[in-house]
TrEMBL record:
The lineage of its organism: Bacteria, Bacillati, Actinomycetota, Actinomycetes, Pseudonocardiales. It comes from the Bacteria. PANTHER family: NAD(P)H NITROREDUCTASE RV3131-RELATED, NADPH NITROREDUCTASE. Residues 327-337 have a biased composition (Basic and acidic residues). This is Acg family FMN-binding oxidoreductase. Residues 314-337 are annotated as: Disordered. It comes from Actinomycetospora chibensis.
């Protein structure tokens, strides 16, 4: 096999960063920054894009960066590259500081895996869906496939049933009531839902529901300022058969939360490939009291819950969702050397 030139490697990494821009992030803040050098690519947090009042502990930022890193991995694998990712490598003499991850690539041996190809095809089709889902329940083997997708990056997907589901839903309701009272939260929400003209970030009106705050069966979701997204025609909120799950990390070390972000991306892309609709939800983990309750009553003290997920079949009577905006590549990627 011939060794690819530096230009070929750089072009492959640049293209994969362009694909990774579609990754989800809290409030669509897109808190990532990439630095491309001659033989490697570094991922950094864009510190100006943190949500200090919503995401006090900085987990949302790490999860968003983890999603971008996983999207990048999928894009590379789909184009025949093997990526070697080192999380938090030392970077003593570079002005950018220590990256979250460093990626090096070489041509992969063998063909592209069918699953990778399906995940790559799901990148543009995945959208956060805050509408009512259908009344069809999600079978155990499908939930099992989502759990399998999470595992290579250290994440475990716990689906909540029965009494656990009731406790989980109660914690979500309480978090939805309490978080808006926390200092600075409402201003931050306003800032990321009312962007200046030409901004290519934040949550646009087309992704926010037009009606009152969403509440499906026992589930109360994060409230966003009223938008233009319509519920599917017909159907009632009590018919929504969403499953409620929580993704946990090994612990709360930044590298574990970053890797859980990779698991989150893997679950979301797998779900999209299987035709499911998803809503990632961190609100219940951003209020200290509901987070601790979830940890003790639903998950168990040995794992760290990092993001909740609502998963279900989309209603057949809903309009297609529009993609939310993303910043252009040259705002996100710096090339050095
Ligand atoms: C870590 C994380 C936390 C999120 N938390 C919520 C949430 O609590 N409620 C919600 O409706 N959406 C939540 N989202 C979805 C984002 O708002 C969404 O990804 C972003 O607006 C981009 O839109 P898209 O997913 O349709 O591409 C979250 C996403 C991530 C990655």
């Amino acid at each position: 096999m011939t060794t690819p030139t530096t230009d070929t490697v750089r072009a492959a990494l640049r293209d994969a960063v362009a694909t990774s821009l579609r990754a989800p992030s809290e409030h669509n803040a897109q808190p990532w920054r990439w630095v491309l050098a001659s033989d490697h690519l570094d991922l950094h947090i864009d510190r100006g894009r943190r949500l200090p009042f919503t995401d006090e502990r900085g987990h949302g930022v790490l999860l968003g960066c983890g999603c971008a890193l996983h999207h990048l991995r999928v894009a590379l694998a789909d184009r025949g590259w093997h990526a070697r990712v080192r999380h938090q490598p030392e970077n003593p003499d570079e002005p950018e500081g220590r990256p979250l991850a460093r990626v090096r690539i070489r041509p992969a041996e063998g063909g592209v895996d069918k699953d990778v190809h399906q995940q790559a095809a799901a990148i543009d089709r995945r959208h956060t869906d805050r509408r009512r889902f259908s009344s069809r329940s999600v079978p155990p083997d499908v939930l099992g496939a989502l759990g399998d997708a999470a595992r290579p990056f250290g994440g475990v997907l716990h689906v909540a049933f029965g009494a656990h589901r009731a406790l989980f839903a109660e914690a979500m309701r309480e978090a939805a009531e309490r978080q808006p009272e926390q200092e600075g939260y409402a201003a931050e929400l306003y800032r990321w839902t009312h962007r200046y003209a030409g901004a290519r970030d934040g949550i646009p009106a087309a992704a926010r529901l037009e009606g009152p705050p969403p509440s499906y069966r026992d589930l109360v979701l994060r409230w966003f300022p009223r938008g233009t997204l319509r519920q599917p025609h017909g159907g009632m909120d009590h018919e929504d058969a969403s499953m409620l799950a929580i993704l946990t990390a090994v612990d709360e070390e930044p590298v574990s939360v970053l890797r859980a972000g990779e698991s989150l991306s893997a679950v979301l892309l797998e779900a999209t490939a299987l035709g499911l609709a998803t809503t990632p939800i961190t609100q219940v983990l951003e209020v200290a009291e509901t987070r601790e309750r979830l940890r003790h009553l639903v998950v168990g003290a040995h794992r760290a819950p990092v993001v909740a997920l609502r998963i279900g079949w989309p209603s057949e009577r809903g309009d297609p969702l529009h993609p939310t905006p993303r910043r252009p590549l040259d705002h996100v990627l710096t090339e050095v050397d």
